[in-house]
Amino acid sequence: MIRVALLRRNNNYLAILVVGIVSVFPATIQAQALNGCDLNSDGAVNILDVQLATNMALGLAPCTANIAGAGVCNPVVVQGIENAALTGKCVPHSATLTWTASTSANMVGYNLYRGTQSGGPYTKLTSSPVTGTTYVDITVQAGQTYYYVATAVDGHNNESVYSNQATAAVPPT
C-alpha cells in the first residue's frame, strides 16, 4: 500500500510517501525547498556558519538549521555548509528518507538507491549500510523527480529485494 500527501507551507514543499521493505520497513520521503546555509543570518555563508553548524551537530548549540530538514544537524549538514562557504552555492533542496527499523534477524543496516526513471535503473547512494533509520540526499537538483528504493542488509552483506519505490518531486525553485 502506498500513501501520498503533498503539503505546501511558506514555499516549503513536503511530499510524504510511505512504502514497505522486508517485514515491517515503511519509509517516509520528503522533498523540501529550503535555503538556509546562512545560519547566523549575517548575509554571507562563511566560516562562522560552518562553526555554528559544527556546534549544532555536536549539540553545543540549539539545532536551528533547516537544510536537510527541520531539526536535522549532523555531519551531512556541516559538509553542505562547508561546500556553500567554498563555492557560494547552498544546496537548497534535499530528500530525507526515514523508515521504521526492520524486524528481520541479523540486520546490520540499509542500502539506499536512487533513479531518475520510475522502475529504475537505480544507483546506490550509500557506500556502506546505513545503521540508523534516516538518510538525507543533499545531491538532488531543483525541478527533478527522483525515485528511491531501499534494501535491508544482513550480517553477511546479503541484501533484500528492493523496497517499494518512493518518489520525491523536488520543486523548481
Which CATH top level class of the domain at 19-28 and 101-169 fits? Mainly Beta
CATH architecture of the domain at 19-28 and 101-169: Sandwich
Poorly predicted runs of 5 or more residues:
1-35
| Whole-angstrom Rg | 17 Å
Within the largest sheet, what's the order of strands?
1-2-3-4-7
Account of the 3D structure:
- Among the domains are: 79 residues, Immunoglobulin-like, CATH 2.60.40; 41 residues, no CATH class.
- It has a 5-stranded antiparallel β-sheet, with no helix packed on it. A 4-stranded antiparallel β-sheet has the order 6-5-8-9, with no helix packed on it.
- The radius of gyration is 17 Å and the shape is globular.
- Helix content is 14%, strand content 34%.
- The chain is built from 2 helices and 9 strands, in the order βββααββββββ.
- With 173 residues, the chain is an alpha+beta fold.
